[in-house]
Amino acid sequence: MAETEPHSASSPEDETSPVPVNHNFMVPKKEICMVPDMGKWKRSQAYADYMGFVLTLNEGVKGKKLTCEYKVSETIEKLLVLLGTLDRWIDETPPADQPSRFGNKAFRTWYAKLDQVKMQTGVSVIPEDKAAAAPEIAVYLKESVGNSTRIDYGTGHEAAFAIFLCCLCKIGALTVDDQLAIIFKVFDRYLEVMRKLQKTYRMEPAGSQGVWGLDDFQFLPFIWGSAQFIDHPTLEPRHFVDEKVVNENHKDYMFLECIKFINEHSNQLWNISAVPTWSKVNQGLVRMYKAECLEKFPVIQHFKFGSLLSIQAVKP
């Protein structure tokens, strides 16, 4: 796997400076309608902000375990309550008895409840003085759990959740002190809920890469999970294919949690196990994420752009 261009560490505040008091929020809408529009996306402030957010968090978790100590703010606690609500609704909405194996229709019943969560987001997670941001930010939360028509889920939905968190940083609801909790508490809990959704309602993978993909549904936890291993004294990339290593360490490392969940290794994962260092793995995964997710029209055509995730070109 080739290396990425070097990235200097920065804080979420560098990439997502808080919006001014008189900011005009707007309900996000689709902007990428045809393949030629992809150039607009690559040049956009949204792309720069999103990659900046992903890479900043990547820098923050280097060498740290899921079980390490970190600050848990009030906003983080509120986000966990929100995700707990989504989880409870799965228990309250059992799969429908239907002949088709995939795409259980009960998912649509579960999904229909999300408008309540959108209200809850505005009331509980967003500071009062930024309440005007709620309709804009809540769109990304709703986009992050899958598609109710196709009953599928993929890396575009996962990205919507990361964008939701990025927007909370932009309005100041989350701060630089929340970096570790964003991944280790909130994103990790989000993954748990999404895995439960995928299994309960037999969701189809959206835009699966088949044998060339890492995992049919997720990508970001492989990036951030590999960063956790950088400079680990004993565990090397070749070790993650060992079931004993996975079972003994998955509670500390997001990457191994992913391996434990998918339970079988894709071709791409076997390739990763041959890379000599976690640093190289991490750089290669960032490149792969850009190429296989962020530069693919079938994924980006569903993205929505507003005032916080702007389609406007980056100012020179």
UniProtKB/TrEMBL annotation:
Region (Disordered): 1-22
Organism, as annotated: Esox lucius
Name of the protein: Serine/threonine-protein phosphatase 2A activator
The encoding gene: PTPA
GO cellular component: cytoplasm; nucleus; protein phosphatase type 2A complex
Chemical reaction(s) catalysed: [protein]-peptidylproline (omega=180) = [protein]-peptidylproline (omega=0)
Compartment list: Cytoplasm; Nucleus
Function: PPIases accelerate the folding of proteins. It catalyzes the cis-trans isomerization of proline imidic peptide bonds in oligopeptides. Acts as a regulatory subunit for serine/threonine-protein phosphatase 2A (PP2A). Modulates PP2A activity or substrate specificity, probably by inducing a conformational change in the catalytic subunit, a proposed direct target of the PPIase. Can reactivate inactive phosphatase PP2A-phosphatase methylesterase complexes (PP2A(i)) in presence of ATP and Mg(2+).
One MF term in the entry's GO annotations: ATP binding
Entry keyword set: Acetylation, ATP-binding, Cytoplasm, Isomerase, Magnesium, Metal-binding, Nucleotide-binding, Nucleus, Rotamase
InterPro entries in the record: Phstyr_phstse_ac, PTPA_C_lid, PTPA_sf
Family stated for the protein in its record: Belongs to the PTPA-type PPIase family.
Organism ancestry: Eukaryota, Metazoa, Chordata, Craniata, Vertebrata
Keyword field contains DNA damage: no
Example of a GO biological process term: mitotic spindle organization
